[in-house]
Design brief:
Shape: globular
CATH topology of the largest domain: Rossmann fold
Order of helices and strands: EHEEHEHHEHEHEHEHEHEHEHHH
Radius of gyration: 20 Å
Largest sheet: 6 strands, parallel
CATH class of the largest domain: Alpha Beta
Distance between the termini: 16 Å
CATH architecture of the largest domain: 3-Layer(aba) Sandwich
Strand order of the largest sheet: 2-1-3-4-5-6
Number of domains: 2
Number of strands: 11
Length: about 325
Amino acid sequence: MRIAVICRNIPNRSIFKGGIENMWLELAQRLPFEIKFFAWPLLPGNGYDLYITNGDNHPLVLISQNLFHKKRIHVYHGTYAGVKSALGKGLFWKGIFYEFLLGIGSVNVSVSIRCQLEVKQVYGYNSQIINNGVNLAKFSAMAKKKSLRKKYNIPFHKVVVLYMGGRNFKKGYDLFQKIFKKIRDASDSNKEQGYFFLDCSKLGIGYEKIEEIIQSSDICIFPSRYEGDSLALLECMACGKPFVSFKTGRLASVAGNNTEFLVEQTATNIIDFEKKIEKLLRSKDLRIKLGVKNREYAEKFSWDIVAKKYERLIKSTLEN
């Protein structure tokens, strides 16, 4: 059975492109089908049994689908309507229009409850939930932190706070910079017990090595204004790391025993976010305790489990 998966970019382990591409890199290894990746302007032809589209793929894929009479699954990883609402600015009409078109004539999947509600409320489509997963072997809590810090020139004697996101407004990069400056300035008077903020977006690390950066850190932060179902969060949890995040998307439901370190998202609550980080910075025991609980939670979301759900969906879609 041959399946065409269409993403925004061709998935590549050596390049850190994004959650959708990383998701399909993991699933392709576990699904018992022949999978070929495509990205605009390349479109699949007649030699495939099923198309799987993602997010805001170019709607011209619908012409190829109808021309060759192919069945299709569409995966919503969030919605542009949700992004527009969360950011409070920006014009996303093209993305919203594309998402609407791609939900026509397909079996629809949402990656979280919030995403499912948005798809229903905005586009009127029903969808089933299949959450994202994590590679539990790759993202392990057993790594040797000292050797990894030496490898990446990260200070060993400091508490490392890792920002896991892109340099954009949606991921809260501007908020990360403000948090970094305030806590850094506050720690300048105590150099020996200081803190080190690590910006993953500046490291140029591919997906094949990203777990080493997470494993070398002590705390992960997610000041995102909008998320569908954060892969990076699950990966940090699988590495046994505590985190601080805003309550957005599936972050709130993923948190499990970490709910104290979720912050209500308002225009003025960056101070609350900083206080949560500072609490973790002060207590190594608390970081370890939360890290153990987070690893236990992440074990419920292995890619092997997720792949089985997609395998059943693909088979049922082709049979019906």
